[in-house]
Amino acid sequence: MSNDEKIYRKMLKAIVEHQLPPGERLPEDKLSEAFGVSRTGIRKVLQRLAIERFVVIQPNKGAQVNRPSRQEAEEVLESRIMLEPLLLPDVIDNWQPRCLDHFVTMVEEEKRADREGDLASSIHLTAKFHYELAKLGNNSVLAEFIEQLCYRSSLVIAAYGTRESVSCDCGDHHALLELIDNGKIEQAQHWMTHHLKQIKASISLRGKRDDHIDFQKLFSGME
């Protein structure tokens, strides 16, 4: 694993586990000192996190942890509730036996991350399950849009959700795969709608924490 990848994972973990709360500034000089790398290396990681919408970079202001508004959070999740069930008939039409093995493996990875308390991986794996499923439909434009919504909802969950937001409390993906594999379109659409509504219900927006962040202490002890 490259050094950039290690730094990326540590920072993502800190954001997801609320050690770096929404709105927290991310000074390149302090992060460079904490990780023992150049500011150029830190900048590359921050740019990657910005592409995934976990970080916002503003000219002359630097980077900070993205803070979705209540309206944005609700609109992102409502958009998924409206759109993802619509793709399921095409997903089922394009479903192949090999698809089941692929997605079952993904669900097992989700469960392993949940058992190990790895919230960052759980959020990423859950989003990946949804957007890879959407790509099986015939509408590539809509599938790409859903992929972006999944990234944005990952941020919402990371910032304001709980472990319940990505756990079986919101529905076990195995159940959806069984419905899809058996060609049960209406039941699969109902399951997906209920699943996404449960995720939305698990979100609780909170105010910004005012603690001072000691980057050296925070990242020196992270694996």
TrEMBL record:
HTH gntR-type domain location: 1-68
InterPro entries per record: GntR_C, TF_FadR/GntR_C, Tscrpt_reg_HTH_GntR, WH-like_DNA-bd_sf, WH_DNA-bd_sf
Key word DNA-binding present: yes
Keyword Transcription regulation assigned: yes
Domain of life (superkingdom): Bacteria
SMART domains per the UniProt record, alphabetical: FCD, HTH_GNTR
Gene3D superfamilies recorded: GntR ligand-binding domain-like (1.20.120.530), Winged helix-like DNA-binding domain superfamily/Winged helix DNA-binding domain (1.10.10.10)
Sorted UniProt keywords: DNA-binding, Transcription, Transcription regulation
TM ranges: none
Protein name: GntR family transcriptional regulator
